[in-house]
Amino acid sequence: MASQAPTIPIVAVTTRLFRNLPRLILANLLFAIPFAAFTALTWGCTALFGVSDDYRVFVMLLTLIPLFPFYAGIASVTVKMVEGEEKPKVCSRFFSAVKDNFGRFLVHGVVLYFAVFFSYFSISMYIRLVGQNTMFILPLIISILVSLVFLFAFFYIPAMTVMFDIPMRYIYKNAFLMSFGELKNNFIGLFGLFFLSIICSTFLIACTGSAVAVIIVTAVLAGVLVPSVAAFIIHSAVYKRMYEMLSDSANRTDRSRKIDEKIDQKRGKAKPVSDEEKRQLRESIKNLEIDESIPDDEYIYFNGKMVKQSVIKKMKQEALESEES
Question: Structure pTM?
Fold first, then answer.
């Protein structure tokens, strides 16, 4: 029997996109509710307090901060689709991700606001100045490059937050390192977003004869499709490599720790572990709820490091057996 031809990555991603399109639309609709609410609230405040047109855009951008925790839901759903999970439970996963990551995504929203503020302000300012003096081309290029770094970092930050229980400083450190170190995948994701923007622009250009039609099409695209599809495109480009790097980093950290412990033991400097610490660890393992839907080879963050699901199961079984004996 002839061997099956390998699937071209873009074909596989496109097939998975259309197969999951109804669930992407559902996730987007869940996101659209707070999106519409916060946008209307911010717009109302600008009208109520008479914010001038020069500052209106910066006030409207404040919507990103309270809205971004709800993007955790989209990130969680789309990552599971990219991982190949068939028919993920959209509503439960969406709200669980929002609840579990609300505080962290608020911080991300603040960082994102200042990143967008810097990008918009600096690039628009230097574009105007270049028309007066070409010496401003260099700071314009620098501003664009810095904005790209922020954009690439936010390709990783949401997925890393919802899928890995690691400290915030490591999330940002890893994200900015990968924004430089994974340029190939970053530009693939950027190209995918560019292609999505072309499709959206085509619909908008077709409606240029009517302002009402433009508003309706924009609302439909934003409320039904764009955020979730954009997240799916980004995670399809970067998530696999990010997961491999973080898992490998966790293994290297664990191996390094064990080597350091052996060296300390030979030097007589090993840190003694008290009976109370051992008892607390056994109790935490025994009381640990294991999600059987997670594959055994998937890494779970437990007790300060990434550990395979199969190892956690074995540890719990051993803890229960020791209690019975």
Answer: 0.74
